[in-house]
Design goal:
Layout (H helix, E strand, L loop, with lengths): L1 H13 L14 H14 L4 E6 L5 E3 L2 E2 L6 H7 L7 E10 L4 E8 L4 H7 L4 H9 L4 E3 L16 E3 L14 H14 L7 H11 L6 H14 L7 H8 L3 H9 L6 E2 L2 H11 L3 H24 L6 H15 L3 E2 L4 E4 L20 E6 L1 E3 L2 E2 L2 E6 L6 H19 L7 H18 L38 E4 L2 E4 L12 E4 L2 E4 L6 E2 L8 H9 L15
Parallel strand pairs: 1-7, 5-6, 7-8
Antiparallel strand pairs: 1-4, 2-3, 4-5, 9-12, 10-11, 11-14, 12-13, 15-18, 16-17, 18-19
Helix pairs in contact: 8-9, 9-10, 12-13, 12-16, 14-15
This protein binds glycine (GLY) and manganese (II) ion (2 copies).
Length: 533
């Protein structure tokens, strides 16, 4: 009890901040430096870009969620500690005492905080290990060096409208955000759609203003939460270019730009370098092996949580640091819930189990789905649906080649599913339906839905191909199809030549899955004591 009081007091003083500072076997300091240089090359003269690492999120009372860095911040730095900020200048600037084209602010070393939450790199560690030259403790933000609004034409950041919630662990971050917002004249308006609309008005010449008024009208229909925005409404309802000019001139002044940086990061992160591909391939391989081991271990009577646990245990055996996203294990009708993460069905029997899980390896995440019959054998309807999804997926994977339009994968896979559903009599030909309600592909990388563009595919892009069919109970078709949910998801590397399936180790055909499910598992003989409570 005494220890609890002491613990609470100390936690109040130091906050709870998680530990891992950087990956020793991940991307190198030199690699991250090349990414900063690539961004600098894209920046207009006399500008600066700023990246804030994620805030710490409180879970319950004294305990926070496991910390996960912001993926753009990590991409640029390799640094994983909270309360850190990176600034990149478009060119080297002379601050009197020193010249710098980038600066990073970090947490100070603090023996008491480190006793609770693990080692921090501090200023010297960030210099030595991460290779930054100009490193300051975060309390120096705004002081060393002094930055002035008038010294820059533009300040680039990502959207900062989310704010930082209550935790004391975020005090330094909150202070830096506040100071940056003053420096950049960041809009007080906290609706990102309004900010985007103002930026559009601000950058529109008078002769094009009627067109932009129309664009804003459509935007207002799409985002009803800007319906009451007076500036936008005045611009849309203005009856002459002069009136629109007046609205533009009355806009609040700002040098903050919240769009350009996001677009630049989309471009930089879309094509993976060989170093990234190596890490991604490892995350995917581990996840595929998890699927294999579950296929061997799965049997009727298991729970969704147990299956989730086997996947995640396998990843931990390989040393994966995290899950890439909340694991989805949905049996029967639960498979129809696309982002089902409760995984609370016990005693699964005679059902398909949809398993969409991805390990994270040194920051990079996999995203692999397999759907298996818990009994070890697909029934007739399950097999028909499964093979239709597989046919669609194979056609999608075949399209993962340089030069193919991203959207083509979605178009072709959907057409195959539509035709197949009609052939099976589940829909009438040409009928609109909701049995495949999600997109087929997304980029994969540091984020499970990674940054990237949607034009022609380029070598080095990694994307998922994941068609699915979900037939919830009560659907307008023969009840024999009800509660069948199948998704098959693989992670594909686009190259100069053939598509490379990084998740190929996880069986995908009906025959291969059924064969794998016949094999013994180490878990078959592992029993735990009965608990009769
Ligand atoms: N696991 C989320 C997705 O497949 O997009
Ligand atoms: Mn996916
Ligand atoms: Mn997935």
């Amino acid at each position: 009890m005494k220890r609890k009081v002491l613990t609470s007091l100390l936690i109040l003083i130091v906050g709870v901040i998680s530990a891992q500072t950087h990956f020793e076997d991940g991307l190198s300091a030199e690699w991250h430096k090349t990414r900063r240089e690539a961004l600098r090359e894209r920046m207009a003269p006399n500008t600066m870009a700023i990246f804030f690492n994620n805030s710490v999120k409180n879970r319950t009372n004294d305990v926070d969620y496991v910390y996960h860095p912001d993926t753009d911040f990590f991409y640029m730095t390799g640094f994983r500690e909270p309360n850190s900020v990176l600034i990149i200048f478009s060119e080297e600037r002379d601050f009197g005492d020193f010249k710098a084209d980038e600066i990073i602010y970090v947490q100070n070393r603090d023996p008491r905080a480190e006793m609770w939450n693990g080692k921090r790199l501090g200023v010297e560690g960030v210099k030595d290990i991460l290779g930054f030259e100009h490193v300051f403790v975060n309390s120096e933000f705004g002081v060393t060096p002094k930055l002035n609004t008038e010294d820059f034409d533009k300040f680039f950041s990502l959207d900062l409208s989310n704010g930082v919630a209550g935790s004391r662990s975020n005090l330094a971050l909150r202070k830096m955000l506040f100071q940056y917002k003053e420096l950049s004249q960041y809009p007080e308006e906290d609706n990102p759609v309004s900010i985007q609309a103002y930026e559009l008005i601000r950058t529109t010449e008078v002769e094009n203003s009627a067109n932009v008024a129309q664009i804003l009208g459509r935007m207002r229909q799409r985002f009803p939460d800007i319906e009451d925005d007076e500036i936008i409404n005045n611009y849309i309802s203005a009856t002459s270019p002069e009136e629109r000019l007046k609205v533009k001139e009355a806009l609040p002044r700002t040098k903050a730009d919240v769009q350009t940086l996001a677009q630049a990061m989309d471009v930089l992160r879309e094509v993976k370098t060989p170093e990234e591909i190596e890490l991604l391939a490892k995350a995917v391989k581990i996840s595929a092996i998890g699927q294999v081991e579950v296929m061997k271990a799965a049997k009727e009577g298991m729970s969704e949580r147990e299956i989730q646990g086997i996947h995640e245990f396998i990843w931990k055996r390989y040393g994966s640091e995290e899950i890439g996203y909340p694991s989805i294990v949905g049996a029967g009708h639960n498979g129809c819930i696309l982002h089902y993460v409760e995984n609370d069905m016990s005693n699964i029997s005679k059902r398909l189990v949809l398993m969409d899980l991805g390990a994270e390896w040194r920051g990079y995440t996999a995203d692999v789905t397999r759907t298996i019959p818990i009994s070890g054998e697909f029934n007739e309807e399950e097999e028909l649906i499964y093979n239709l999804v597989l046919k669609s997926q194979e056609a999608g994977i075949e399209l993962c080649r340089a030069g193919v339009e991203f959207g083509e994968i979605g178009r072709v896979t959907r057409q195959i599913i539509n035709e197949g559903l009609a052939e099976l009599g589940i829909i009438k030909e040409g009928e609109q339906h909701n049995y495949f309600p999600h997109g087929t592909s997304h980029h994969l990388g540091l984020d499970v839905h990674d940054r990237g563009g949607y034009g022609p595919l380029k070598p080095g892009v990694v994307l998922t191909v994941e068609p699915g069919i979900y037939i919830p109970e009560g659907s307008n078709c023969d009840p024999k199809w009800w509660n069948i949910a199948v998704r098959i998801e693989d992670d594909i590397l686009v190259t100069e030549g053939e598509p490379v399936n990084l998740s190929v180790d996880a069986p995908r055909t009906v025959a291969a899955i059924e064969e794998m499910m016949k094999l013994p598992s180490a878990l078959d003989t592992w029993t735990l004591p009965e608990i009769n409570q």
